[in-house]
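**User:** Here is a favour to ask of a fellow structure person. Please take any protein you like and set down a full record of it. No explanation is needed for now; the record alone will do.

**Assistant:**
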Amino acid sequence: MSDDAATTEPGGLIDRHVSFMGALRTAGLPVSMAESLDGGRAIAAIDLLEREQLRAAYAAAVVKHAAHRPAFDRLFDLWWPAAVGDGHDDGEAADGEGALDDAEPIDLDALRTELRDRLRDVLLSGDDEALRRLAREAVNGLGRAEGGQPGRQSWFTYRVLRAMNPDTLMASLLESVLFGKERGGLAEKVARQMITERIKQFEEMVESEVRRRLAEERGAETIAKTAVKPLVEQVEFLRASRDDLAALRRQVHPIARRLATRLTAKRRLGRSGRLDVRRTVRASLSTGGVPLTTIFKPHKPHKPELVVLCDVSGSVAAFAHFTVLLAFALREQFAKVRIFAFVDTTDEVTRFFERGGDVVDALQRMSSEADVVWYDGHSDYGHSFEIFAQKWPDAVGPKTSFLVLGDARTNYRAPALPALRSVVRQARHAFWLNPEPRQYWASGDSAAATYGEVMPMVECRNVQQLQEFVEGLLPV
């Protein structure tokens, strides 16, 4: 590791490795025993004084997906910190630059001014290591506060960022970068983006430093519970943010391809296709016209047809956004896709899901043009099923896979089971994906258990459960 890194005894090194592997598993990273052993071997193969070598070796051993790397990096920084305490080694103390003497009162205004001036210079220089040292000094000087217990301190990111307010340096930095150049053109746009990225990098370094100091006070395991965001495949659809939905968009297309493969219908006659009469007769000529060998035509698999019926009411707004993403992806994988949306009545919205279209535009058009509200705009599954069965009786056929997406909360209205049952009987497959936890299915106005008697009800709260549902389907 670096010169200011924490030193660890051999026995403690193994314990820390085991604890780190456990933290990765707790965060959701799929780390097997073999990969854990590979990570242990990496410790013996690299120079422990080079911390980034250790990070790279661990990542090569246990990280399988790029989306898991941010969680890995946060946990690595907690278990293998770049410094201990204030992080000032003897060299820094000798130089005197940025070293804060806790024995003397600190003039916070003067310190804030000094750190802001230095931040401006470091942002212009682009020196990452200097930026990291400055973030550490800023946290030491501006981010600490007395804790609730004697002798303990608390550390706060917002105190540092509020005091230094790096965003307000943008105008001064642009003036320095663009000195002698024309403003308002491409050069300014590039410079603004570069400065914005460096400021964000500094803010992330401050957050990381605060987490390190808190981990020293309270333990890495305690801080890891809140420091690591859920992996994208573990984010619940009903609680997904705008950024989460953007990440989910990249996960949907491969899942849609696997779903189409699993639902691909093959016409089966025994173990083979239809009898090939011409080739069978021709083969029988060698046996005096006796067809000792029968020849069959190969199967002709075809893309399945799909009908999606999704709840787009406010209670499942984030899940409705995800269903739109899924519908776009499925549109390209199936020979025929028809999409229907409902709140308290049903309307076909296939026209909004043209190939190559935009998800946001589809949502806006669907909310303004689709006829999905009949009475009061509250979910009415029963009336929606009845309208679907009446207006589109031929939408679902023997080659159709039928998917319902919604939380099955009926607002205590009639479930209209006969209408749903008649549709399910016509379908080749029928599945209901429910974004609510299974333990809530029998609570309040949820009719999930009732509808589950008509068609399979599958808990689908996140991408991971959707993947498990798709992988659990047997090709037919």
